[in-house]
Amino acid sequence: MIRRLGVRLLILVGIAYLSLFVALFFYQRAILFPGADPSRVARALTVSGMREVFIASHDGLSLRAGYLPAKKGKPTLVYFHGNSGDIVSPLPRVKRLAALGYGVFIPEYRGFGGNPGRPTQHDMVLDAQTALTYVQTYVPRDEIIYYGVSLGTGVAVQLAALHPPKALILEAPYTSIADAAAARFRYLPVLEFLLFDPFNSMDEIDKIHCPKLFLHGEQDRVIPFSLGTQLYEAAPEPKQAWFHPEAGHNNLYQHGAFNAIQAFLKSLGD
Length: 270
Fold this sequence. Notes:
Blueprint lengths: L1 H25 L1 H5 L8 H8 L2 E6 L5 E7 L7 E5 L10 H9 L3 E5 L13 H15 L8 E6 L1 H12 L4 E5 L5 H8 L27 E6 L7 H10 L4 E6 L12 H11 L3
Parallel strand pairs: 3-4, 3-5, 5-6, 6-7, 7-8
Antiparallel strand pairs: 1-2, 2-4
Helix pairs in contact: 5-6
């Protein structure tokens, strides 16, 4: 009797475990791309002084973006935000960069910030290339810097491997979505071939030879610090790192990351 109950319990646990695995497989994009509230976007861009623009995607979507032109002689940063934000989230940073004369272009992902469509790695990288083409109508290629945050580091790395920028800034980067997911879901096997959007930055980083700045908090509970250091170590020179022992995932600027970014930009001769 006890043995039979034990077998039934094991079967139930196995079914529950398998059900969880299957659910995560089918809902992986909902987890990776949660989107954000679109209602605040247009007004916030206007208040910030950014120009609201719309870019036609390769598949006919009209995608919102925000653009703040640089002062003469200063480069423009193309900013790819994280998966829990939208183009409004970086606006406090935009103000600080604008005060120094830098331009900022924030392409909003499809499915985020009121944009139509559903995000995928394939389409997001194509959208990033379209956004870059738009920026290049105003800014020379050698005056464009990519800045990726969290999920956006994967987009920035993929884009940089295809279209080399003046420089690359990666805040809270990861080696791959598979590695980041394995750290989060320790009790489940995470196999890259089962991921729809692997964003494998480790496979692309050695192709990027422009100056690079890596930023990461050692207390990061979203993307482990170890993944950021692995990507940094795999990256070719020239590269710089700013790692803070007390910073987490979302508070790097509170611990002085902006000063490191400002120093890095100055080192480029800007």
